[in-house]
Amino acid sequence: MSQSIVREETKNEIQDSAQVRIAILSNSGGAGKSTLCHNIAYNLNKLGKSTLLLDLDIQHNLDLFCGLTSTKKVGTMVDVFAENFQGNYPIVQIEGRQTSIIRGCNELQRVQQELVLRRRREQVLADLFVDYPLEYDAILMDCPATLGLVIDNAIASATHLLIPLVPEGKAVQGLNGLFDTIEKISRDLRLNPRPTVLGIVPVGYEKDTASHRQALAAFKSRCDYIEVELFEPITDSKEVKNANEAGKPIGIYRPGHKSSLEFERLTKLLFDKIYGKT
């Protein structure tokens, strides 16, 4: 596996970038992508960055997590991927926050099939960001768990990638395959520059579970070898699940809670890595 998936950038190059676009992806379901996306966006707001969430997952869990329980939707990412799209992004402002969202839906499965017939099918989203710019400091993309053209579009349009993984044996085994996929997509699409892999975030970690400790050690060994950062784990928490069901980030639902501090610490590390230490 090539180590070229990790693109080294100078601090000045990062600061000159007008917009940060982070694709949050994993090679399995239940890896906490939506929770991570939601809570990082909230903490980026606290650091002064306006954020937009793009829900690319057919499960569209971000609807619930953002408190959008109504089944009547103004528009979704399906509209954005439509061939006749002309820049009228169906953006929903989340009440009381500096975060907005373009919602997902189960019809994104149909988008996968329709994209096959499109020219530049892997770069539809990247082209839209050029043709119809979005005025947000950061765009966070909640990716589906299965590989396909939607994930190709996320990677092709991203400046950075963040990978949450549950500390289990199958995640350790699938890690090489995930990085090989990222490398292959970047190479085949001739992405220049390639998105920077920010690192891996273990989620749902239970320190008293032996298999989790073993998986974490395996993550560390692999990350050291390929020179990818392994962030401190986000521990398993019922309060995070409760916050999701309440439609709030844990920082609003239970400020000062251990999980709230973990997401806050992670976001600050990401912020420093992207923008340079403040």
UniProtKB/TrEMBL annotation:
Protein species of origin: Chamaesiphon polymorphus CCALA 037
PANTHER family per the UniProt record, alphabetical: P-LOOP CONTAINING NUCLEOSIDE TRIPHOSPHATE HYDROLASE (PTHR13696), PARA FAMILY PROTEIN CT_582 (PTHR13696:SF52)
Protein origin, superkingdom: Bacteria
Stated name of the protein: ParA family protein
InterPro entries per UniProt: AAA_dom, DNA_Partitioning_ATPase, P-loop_NTPase
Every AAA domain range: 22-189
